[in-house]
Design goal:
By secondary structure, the chain is of the alpha/beta class. The protein has 3 domains: about 140 residues, Rossmann fold (3-Layer(aba) Sandwich), CATH 3.40.50; about 60 residues, no CATH class; about 140 residues, no CATH class. It is about 70% helix and about 10% strand. It is built from 16 helices and 5 strands. It has a 5-stranded mixed beta sheet, sandwiched between helices. α14 packs antiparallel against α15. The mean pLDDT is about 75.
Length: about 375
């Protein structure tokens, strides 16, 4: 018996479970996407067929080995006299919450047929094992078995793996857009600028493009934009309010500049000194503030409206954003009065306390309403 089989048997003996369910987890649904198999797959013969079909479709996929390992664990436990069943459950291709919900639903479905009181989890990595807490909600997990592929450590194998990932970067659009597209743009712009003699100026542009690309990828701005621009009523609302809000925020800058008294800036030589003057700052903020707040508010309102239409239960946080934005406005307005008219700084305290009180009262009312609706839903269920 292998060390892995001994570990599983030891874990099972340490528990009080007498009916075991060996569960092979495929969180990204390779067995469904590649082999066209509908999960849950129940029973030894059905799991063998699923593993064979997946191995034929993609011999390099580790999930087929995980299924075979689950079958081996099932046979070892059967030979020891345990009541055991083996199944394969799968999530969805994009993983995430939907994948976990699907795996949980499939596990519950199997438990209606085979009421086990303990589970042995078989997976090929940490991603699949992240579903274990979800399964523990309906079935105690007595043992976890990770399948690790034995591979050649030769130099030839390393080159083969390296070549495979290079090919993925070159032909898989999910990766090539960033790893080839961004450097390609930078090299193209740099080459053109060098020909026309703008080498020094183009350096700042290249650094800006590279920094923007890193920020977009780091904060998932591209994915967020793709979800905002989906052809649904919620997507169009988010896209419209986002574009309108950004334009308003940008237009607040010239509005603030136009609000500055021209007499305060006498000449170009004094410009740097004048823009640090508190009256100049106060007039700029005073002119920019209304349009800036309207722009931010339109973005928050669009999020609230799209979530409300789509039935997404996030209205409390969306409403609170707008309330907080409105509560901060009097404080910002008083700040500009202090800068322009040299008013006492303690005049900031009343609008600040008022905004804090409005925020706390609004949050209390909204959360009480949410809790009341939640309790009514639980009672009706």
């Amino acid at each position: 018996m292998s060390q892995r089989s001994k570990k599983v048997e030891k874990d099972v003996n340490a528990s009080t479970a007498n009916k075991l369910l060996v569960i092979c987890i495929d969180r990204d649904n390779d067995v469904g996407e590649k082999a066209g198999i509908i999960t849950p797959v129940i029973g030894r013969d059905a799991c063998i067929e699923a593993a064979q079909r997946l191995a034929l479709e993609d011999p390099e996929d580790a999930d087929s080995n995980s299924i075979f390992s689950a079958i081996k664990t099932y046979e070892d436990l059967i030979s020891k006299g345990y009541q055991v069943e083996v199944i394969t459950v799968a999530g969805v291709q994009d993983r995430g919450v939907q994948a976990d919900e699907k795996i949980l639903a499939e596990t519950k479905k199997v438990l209606e047929i085979f009421p086990a009181n303990g589970a042995v989890i078989v997976s090929d990595g940490e991603d699949d094992e992240s579903v274990i807490p979800v399964i523990q909600n309906v079935l105690p997990v007595v043992s976890v078995q990770r399948v690790v592929m034995k591979v050649s450590r030769s130099v030839e194998y390393s080159y083969a793996v390296f070549g495979k990932y290079l090919k993925m970067l070159a032909y898989d659009t999910k990766y090539s857009k960033f790893f080839l597209g961004v450097p390609g743009i930078l090299l193209l712009i740099g080459g053109i600028a060098t020909v026309f003699g703008y080498t020094a100026e183009i350096f700042a542009v290249l650094v800006s493009i590279l920094g923007g690309a890193f920020l977009i990828r780091a904060f998932d701005i591209d994915r967020a934009w793709s979800s905002w621009s989906k052809p649904t009523p919620m997507g169009f609302i988010r896209m419209f309010t986002m574009v309108a809000g950004v334009l308003l925020i940008l237009s607040s800058v010239p509005a603030g500049i136009s609000a500055i008294d021209a007499n305060l800036i006498e000449s170009d030589s004094q410009f740097i000194l004048k823009i640090t003057d508190k009256m100049v700052i106060g007039q700029f903020v005073s002119g920019a503030l209304p349009i800036l707040w309207i722009g931010i508010g339109s973005i928050f309102a669009g999020t609230l409206l799209s979530n409300w239409i789509g039935g997404v239960p996030r209205q409390i946080s969306d409403i609170l954003r707008i309330i907080v934005l409105g509560s901060i406005y009097p404080t910002m307005l008083q700040f500009t009065n202090i800068m322009i008219h040299d008013v006492n700084s303690f005049t900031l305290v009343p609008p600040l306390l008022g905004g804090l009180a409005a925020t706390l009262i609004s949050a209390t009312i909204l959360f009480k309403k949410y809790k009341k609706n939640k309790d009514q839903e639980m009672i009706s269920d």
